[in-house]
């Protein structure tokens, strides 16, 4: 063991070494979906995404790198949570050992195990947000990551998730979002769908996105410019459930051509965020405070 950046550096040559158990079987989705929330951890992959997580204030448990990337560990990794607390360890393993631990070839060369934070409260988020996305039961981590990237890049204040919706901190969501899951505050809405009543109670126009032919055309569906708007997005297969559709004040569709029945939900979200952003912002309602959104990126 050697010290680097004021923290321990440990060479791992046995894939069964318990010190790297956070990184075992990363390709086993069912196992990881259960284990990571239970143990209060998530995995950030690649130096840039790790740096994003650190800048957003997530505390590292450890980092696992190939020898070639050992000196690429972001500087923020070495910061101690508080004086006297030990810095998180850096584990270094060759490509074969890395692959045996994780179950795949680690091309990005760096993986970090990070601590999850206490979940945010949906009612608190809604108290200050103006534009929110609400996702019902999305299954695909790829779609969810892409939705967070659009939400961040197109100015949404928060994302709300049904209890069964995929985990934004799952490795693939984090990677596809390019770390934007750390930038956009999110919360679970429970119980579902009863908690959707919070949207109306908080003064939101609730717009359900559906390809149904009798829905209003999207660009005509937004109400007055200063309205606070919540956009409901449905699951990949069957779309929004009837109970959720019934909570909407409007139903909006993106017209389809060539007999195509619907768009991918992440593509829908990007279009909706863009169209919503074309409206002038209301000066009277503040956007999400930085305390909820995490430190500035
Ligand atoms: C793959 S679609 C589900 C398709 C499903 N057959 C339906 O009728 O909703 C997943 C989600 O994307 C959104 N979506 C997809 N295409 C859309 C469109 N053309 N207009 C509005 N929303 C759309 C809806 O929120 C939908 O619930």
Give every kind of bound small molecule, once each.
Answer: S-adenosylmethionine
Number of helices: 11
The radius of gyration is 21 Å
What is the overall pLDDT average?
A: 89
Low-confidence stretches: 287-297
Shape: elongated
What proportion strand?
Answer: 15-25%
Q: Helix share of residues?
A: 25-40%
Largest sheet: 7 strands, parallel
How many E-type strands? Answer: 13
Structural class by secondary-structure content: alpha/beta
Task: Give the strand order of the largest sheet, numbering strands 1, 2, ... along the chain.
Answer: 9-8-7-12-10-13-11
Please report the distance between the alpha carbons of the first and last residues: 33 Å
Quaternary structure of the protein: single chain
The helix/strand order is EEHEHEEHEHEHEHEHEEHEHEHH
What can you tell me about this protein's structure?
By secondary structure, the chain is an alpha/beta fold. Helix content is 28%, strand content 20%. The protein contains eleven helices and 13 strands. The strands form two sheets. A seven-stranded parallel sheet has the order 9-8-7-12-10-13-11, with helices on both faces. A six-stranded mixed sheet has the order 1-2-5-4-6-3. Helix 5 packs parallel to helix 10. The radius of gyration is 21 Å and the shape is elongated. The C terminus is likely disordered. The protein binds S-adenosylmethionine (SAM).
């Amino acid at each position: 063991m050697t010290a680097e950046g004021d923290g321990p550096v440990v060479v791992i040559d046995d894939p069964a070494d318990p010190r790297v158990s956070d990184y075992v079987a990363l390709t086993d989705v069912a196992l990881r979906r259960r284990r990571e929330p239970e143990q209060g951890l998530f995995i950030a992959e690649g130096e840039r995404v790790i740096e994003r997580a650190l800048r957003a204030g997530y505390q590292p448990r450890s980092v696992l790198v190939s020898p070639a990337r050992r000196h690429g560990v972001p500087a923020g990794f070495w910061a101690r949570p508080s004086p006297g607390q030990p810095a998180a360890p850096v584990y270094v393993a060759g490509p074969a050992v890395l692959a045996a631990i994780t179950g795949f070839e680690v091309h990005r060369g760096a993986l970090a195990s990070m601590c999850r934070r206490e979940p945010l409260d949906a009612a608190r988020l809604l108290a200050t947000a103006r534009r929110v996305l609400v996702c019902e039961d999305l299954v695909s981590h790829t779609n969810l990551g892409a939705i967070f990237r659009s939400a961040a890049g197109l100015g949404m204040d928060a994302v709300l998730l049904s209890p069964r919706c995929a985990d934004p901190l799952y490795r693939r969501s984090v990677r596809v979002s390019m770390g934007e899951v750390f930038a956009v505050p999110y919360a679970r809405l429970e119980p579902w769908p009863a908690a959707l009543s919070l949207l109306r109670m908080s003064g939101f126009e609730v717009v359900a996105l559906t390809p149904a032919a009798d829905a209003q055309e999207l660009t005509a569906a937004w109400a007055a410019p200063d309205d606070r708007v919540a956009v409901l997005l449905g699951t990949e297969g069957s779309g929004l459930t009837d109970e959720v559709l019934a909570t909407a004040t409007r139903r909006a569709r993106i017209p389809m051509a060539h007999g195509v029945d619907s768009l991918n939900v992440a593509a829908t979200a990007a279009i909706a965020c863009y169209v919503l952003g074309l409206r002038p912002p209301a000066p009277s309602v503040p956007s999400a405070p930085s305390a909820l959104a995490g430190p500035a990126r």
